[in-house]
Amino acid sequence: MTLNEQFGSLGLMVLMGVWIGASFSVYQRFIHPHGKKRWILFATDPVFWIIQALLLFALLLPLNEGVLRFYLFLGVALGFSFYKWILEKPFLYLFDGILAIIVQLGRLIGKSVTILLLYPLYFLLKLVYRLCRMTVNAILKILLFLLVLPLKIFWWMLRLFLPGKWVAGLEKKMIGARRLFVKWLTVITRRR
């Protein structure tokens, strides 16, 4: 292995140390629970470190055929400590800002979809419902008129030809039926 390859490998390991520090900060921000759900760390911590090790080795393999030397581990530790000492606070500040922008953008898109699509759709469905209800009420009132008109004519003819006592008896019996009919009609045509 030449000196250029060794310096390239060392530089890559320092950058990988910075990458591991940044990804560890992001991992802690999202995965590490604050409370009772500590059991999840038994699954996520090994997966995180295995992914980091595989990524480190995959980047090291084309550069120096995957030869691991002690100074490469020192380079990773140097990069990680450099990140923790100098880059962590600015990185997390920038990361939180980007997350806040993404969250605000998601809320804006959600509100836009709600205002531009869901409210008009709700209004249209409500309008169609009310138009259907008005049409049904109009049809029912027309049918009621067409049914009641012959009944009133028939009732008027009965009053002409039947004696008064019989008409009074029929009127008493018809009061209960009329109340039931009016109650049924108000249930059908009532507005909501």
TrEMBL record:
Chain segments annotated as transmembrane: 6-27, 39-61, 67-86, 139-158
Keywords: Membrane, Transmembrane, Transmembrane helix
Pfam families reported for this sequence: Spore_YabQ (PF09578)
Domain of life: Bacteria
Name of the protein in its database record: Spore cortex biosynthesis protein YabQ
